[in-house]
Structure of Cyclohexanone monooxygenase:
Amino acid sequence: MMQSAPRAGAADFDAIIVGAGFSGMYQLHLLRDRLGLKARVLEQGGGVGGTWYWNRYPGARCDSESHSYCFTFSEALYKEWEWSERYPGQAEIMRYMNWVADRLDLKRDIAFDTRVTACRYDAAANLWEVETATGERLTATWLITAVGCLSTANVPKIPGLESFGGRWYHTGQWPHEGVDFTGARVGQIGTGSTGIQAVPVIAAEAKHLTVFQRTANYSVPARNGPLAAEFKAWARENWQAIRETTQSTPNGHPFIIADRSAWDVTEAERQAIYEAAWEKGGLQFRAAFRDLLMDKAANDTAAAFLKAKIREIVQDPETAAKLADIDHPYAAKRPPIDTHYFETFNRDNVTLVDVRANPIERITPEGIRLRDGTEHALDIIVFATGFDAMTGPLLRLNITGRDGLPLAEAWAAGPRTYLGLQVDGFPNLFTITGPGSPSVLCNMPVCIEQHAEWIADCIAHLRGNGIARMEPEPAAVERWVAHVNEAAHATLLPQAGHSWYLGANVPGKPRVFMPYAGGMARYRGICADVAAKGYEGFRLE
Ligand code: N01
């Protein structure tokens, strides 16, 4: 039996929002400026920007095209900002985020350098108590996590790291002052989206770069470059159409997935389509055929094309063979895009080491030693080793729900949510881009806007109807978890067994496919339907 609802005004804030990236900023704007609520954002970093505040590694750039990697809720805001390149770089995104924060006057309600250490639900008072690293305690009716999906760095526990005599960095915790690679022997571990962006930039500066590759990866040229004045004008004039496209595609990107199967065309036509997509560059390569992520044989045709490109670009056949020895379907892991990644292996100062065949045994004071005893002497190690994705950023908030239930315990066998938005046992907690929502399978600002708007509408509904507490029914969570699982298995995504989508990159983490693979447009419809049916599946009281 739950406690009765509290009297109004018992909390310090109507809402506490954790994180000041895209999610937290927009949620604050909606709650404060549209609903007139008292909201506070708590942000660990010294400024806004979320992932872009921390990921300052060489080559950091968004893989979404700039005209769609931004807020689109306001026509005025959209039209006032002008992106300079096809893909926005980290520094430009930070300028954008600060510009938006100033334009919407958000910073006065954001506490920077404020790390949340614990969040406890007090059932008697129906409040969330949030504790920060300085011991401050704040209370709120609603707790909204806006912590991103990829904000908990994963530094693998390789023995001997503490003995390393040089310097080491994780790409997601990059020093603000930058790292000088001049004259240095650099070792980079990891060849995911981050590693593939960093390699060409580090190689151009370092004396020598050794890339330690465990899993070879596909990559398509980004074909980045300055945006032409005509394109900028087109984007400004087509705000509405761009917004409609991103909201109607499965992945929130501003391009349409072709309505043809890889088998609708001849072999020669297929090659020509792939060639054109390669020339165009970017994530659109995935959109060449509608069945690339559904039909393994169709996927094999794309995989073969991309592997042939690697062998064509990389001059040393042995290196090319290692780079093209890819063990998963194309785009079953998040597909990277690059600027001269494979070409970089033609430089004299770059070496590829296959640590699948010959694993890293330990880090020594001088560098990295492999199982066969080979030593690589290094001055700097760069860990491009990814993140404890999706659940990591939530679990480190030490959230406890009703009856003192820790979130870590509730999720011991993997994350369980309803719509990726709420967790049973954790009333009045909303998780923006939480596990079970499309999140990382979507162009992030698109799914963030949908979540923040759904939450704001929901809170307005609760307040308007005198509802003090909202929590999903366990049966609704059960059904959603089953649906998320079913949606993933209708695709080839789970076939990349070592992917972070499955939690497989963190030892001991439960293997559960975390994001919702049913498509953003479909998900948007499901959420709208749930709300239209009086928040079906949620217990409101
Ligand atoms: O991380 P990853 P990331 N020994 O987990 C390797 C987003 N992103 O930071 O595959 C040796 O993908 C690991 O090897 P393996 C994007 O969503 C977006 O690159 O586990 N190697 C892998 O090669 C992306 O997917 C943008 O065998 C080890 C690499 O490290 C997500 O962030 C830009 C190892 C980690 O790859 C994460 O990308 C960049 C070990 N012990 C990133 N441990 C945008 O443009 C790990 N690895 C928006």
About this structure: Residues 62-63, 150, 156, 189-195, 197, 212, 214-215, 334, 355, 360, 384-387, 440, 498, 500, 505 surround 3-acetylpyridine adenine dinucleotide (CB under 6 Å). The longest strand covers residues 137-145. Residues 1-8 have pLDDT under 50 and may be disordered.
